[in-house]
Amino acid sequence: MATPLSDPSQSPLQTIAVVGLGTMGTGIAEVLAKAGRTVVGIDISETQAAKCVAALEASTARGVERGRLTEQERAGILGRVRTSADLRTAADADLVIEVAPESYEIKHQIFRELDGIVRPETILATGTNALSVTRLAADSSRPERVLGLHFFNPAPAMKLVEVVSSVLTAPAAVTAVTDLALDLGKEPVAVGDRPGFVADGLLFGYLNQAAAMYEAKYASREDIDAAMRLGCGLPMGPLALLDLIGVDTARTVLEAMYASSRDRLHAPAPILKQLSEAGLTGRKAGRGFYTYEAPGSPVVVRDGLTPLEGGDLVPGREIRSVGVAGSGTMASGIAEVFAKGGYEVVIAARSAEKAQTAKARIGKSLARSVDKGRMTAEAAAETLDRITATGTYDDFADVDLAVEAVAEDLEIKRQLFAALDKVCKAGAILATTTSSLPVVACARATSRPQDVIGMHFFNPAPAMKLVEVVRTVLTADDVHATVREVCGRIRKHPVDCGDRAGFIVNALLFPYLNNAIKMVEEHYASLDDIDAAMKLGGGYPMGPFELLDVVGLDVSLAIEKVLHREFRDPGLAPAPLLEHLVAAGCLGRKTGRGFREYAKR
Questions:
Q1: 273-279-284 Cα angle (round to 5)
Q2: What's any GO biological process attached to this entry (predicted)?
């Protein structure tokens, strides 16, 4: 990565024209002016140019009110920006950044006109995230001076800038705009020319799958969005994000990606076309996947698809005691959650010693909560007293709900469910925490498949708020209602989904992770640049390779294989690099090496 210039005034890029003064162009103009650059804002619409000026005035006024700017600094910023409807006012620019609509025709026309206006050494940058930079450069009389400079919305807040080179781009031009990005306080990532680049290339495939999941009526829009926020720590759910980006914009990006990749995961979900052609393009139209208070408003209002208040109409069963089968981290975490919720808990393992070890782990977790002021010592002691550790499943005879959290192996789980079927009383609910195996296969191992359901907790169970509630075609309505009620009592957010591989979170998360691995395999971008792009450009709490190493490459590979086997989509086939690392025993943090190396503990 280039080193930032110590004195911005020494940069060769002092006067910068921004062509297209929509939301993105206005944001870029603000960033440039705050960094001391002279900005020429150009838009064929005088109304749009006036909106840009008004937005800059409002933004800088807020900066003064919040103590981030002085009145003198504000005046300087506003004084460095002038607007015009004439492209010829870019004649003296050292750099032109084009952020016109995503259309080759419009962008080609702008670049052809600029060829006859700007100086030979002027750099021409396109802000596209979907179109080919090479194609735009090839039609220019100065292809070596054309590159991509992809800011993220809102430009003043988002740190990532993708610097996109074509095979024709001169290294000096790349260096100049990379230095500029650093001077602007941004994090530039160097990428090659392909639709979506890094961040959008990974993001839009995930958004497309979420749209297809909703279109298939697999889960509600609210549950899909809640699952990805709470299960992955994302700032927004995918359908709400599609509404923010613009459904039509997303469709355009995906069409360009599919034309390049021919990957079915990039083929726009039909619902995107339907919404776009109906004018339901998201927030800007006042309606997309959700309905909004007014066009442009972020406030979601009820519509015909909004779930009714008050939850399930079917009465549930009474749950007073819970059995947890297993002795690992997930089992002890789930037992802790239920005990905190006021339930009497029996934690059973293959031996009394293993069960006692699990209870001791819970005691340590509760002690940490006391140390951090999250609960009193008395409450921690009462919680631990509600837990009974045992080495036999026979002690599940009186529990109302039995939750298994044993190894992710279907035969092991089937054997356990057959045992629970014999031990547990009539009317007891049997739940599996599987993240990838068919719940119905566990149900069929019992004589009471109507009482079996999936409760997929996320690790660490005490901290993660999400539970995927997985109904099979055999699950009784009152069992489903009971589990949702229990989730509320233990302060978890339940989302409903059907019994298919990956449920919601893993079905959307792991293809994204797999695609990130493919980018590295293809030498398109480095691990560090991809991780940085997704954290800075997508708001992800962890980059894909950080997350893969935490989850475990063996676990990730197993889930990828299940998804590929279930959906039969070639695009879901596990990346060979992932298989090679697992075969080599490089499983992530737990082995000290995965995609990265870690210090041995």
A1: 110
A2: fatty acid beta-oxidation
* Structural domains of the chain sorted by starting position, each given as residue range(s) with its CATH number in brackets: 11-193 (3.40.50.720), 199-285 (1.10.1040.10), 321-502 (3.40.50.720), 505-591 (1.10.1040.10)
| Residue 240 one-letter amino acid | A
CB 583 within 8 A of CB 577: no
Residue 77 phi, psi dihedral angles, 5° rounding:
-60, -50
Say which DSSP state 141 is in. Answer: S
Query: Mapping DSSP to helix (H, G, I), strand (E, B) and coil, where does residue 177 land?
Result: helix
Q: Specify the residue for token string 């095979």.
A: 167
β-bridge partners, 456? 468
Query: Which residues fall within 8 angstroms of residue 381, CB to CB, at 6 or more apart?
Result: none
Catalytic one among 166, 327, 365, 435? Answer: 435
Q: Which of 162, 336, 468, 546 is catalytic?
A: 468
Q: How much is the pTM?
A: 0.90
Residue bearing tokens 């961040």? 199
468 carries an active-site annotation:
yes
Distance between CA atoms of residues 80 and 76, nearest Å:
6
Q: Are 199 and 160 in contact (CB under 8 A)?
A: yes
Token pair in block for residue 377: 């010592």
Summarize pLDDT for 465-492 with one digit per residue, the tens. 999 999 999 999 999 999 999 999 999 9
Q: Is 435 an annotated catalytic residue? A: yes
Task: Please identify every stretch of the chain with a pLDDT value under 50, giving residue numbers as ranges.
Answer: 1-6
How far does Cα 135 stand from its chain's mean position? 30
On the CB side of 547, CA atoms within 13 Å amount to 23
| Active-site annotation holder among 166, 332, 365, 506 | 506
Whether the CB-CB separation of 325 and 406 falls below 8 Å is answered with: yes
> 57-72: b or e for each residue (b if 16 or more CB lie within 10 Å)?
eebbeebeeeeebeee
| Residue 243, helix vs strand vs coil | helix
Cβ count within 10 A of residue 50: 13
Q: Map residue 8 onto helix, strand or coil.
A: helix
